Amino acid sequence: MVLLETFVDPQRFRGTVYRAANWLYVGNTQGFRRTRHGYTATPQSPKMVFLKPLQEDARALLCRVTLQPPYLTGGSKMMLLATQMQSLPAFFAPIPDPRRAQGRRHRLSTVLALAAGACLCGMRGYRAMADWAKSLGQRARQRFGCRYEKGRYLVPSESIIRDVLIRVDPVHLDRALQRWNQTYTQEDESLAIDGKTMCNAIDEQGHQTHILSVIGHQSKNCYTQKKSAPCP
Hints:
The chain is α+β, with helices and mostly antiparallel strands. Helices cover 32% and strands 24% of the residues.
């Protein structure tokens, strides 16, 4: 463990116990509450944020693009084979491109394939995905169908990856990933189904959003995630 974090409601408390225990007050949240469609339009209840570093280099460790063992925990990762790299763009090819035709420098299927490949290899976040893509050799970039220009295969930038993932239809993306999983992942003897309530994600009826996930016991791959209605 590297660092602890806690929130204090200033309308009820002052955080005296945390200050006495040498926790660091780093400021207040903006007070926006997460909803199904993003965040509330106006701040409602800002919270005080206190941090407790457990290591002297906690800030440097947490500022890295990707954490190194033993701090990198959770999430499955794998080493992609050449055939898997070549096949990924084809699974995303049917997805409609939400971008304008003018100014497109990279195919949608290539951007999505690189993002998916980065996640499969353990990358988390747009910057980590872009750095992983930049680290690929020319042969690997060719397998992903990257843009060829002036004798070299080019990869999309972090901003392009972010723009595509924000705008692409998540349903189409999820279906493409499921098809790839069914083709290339190993057979699981059993599946684990687990649900989680998103505390600050509220739908139009005022109910909290529930997420249901299906995970393979042997492969540790997430086969699908679905929003589910709250139990009556």
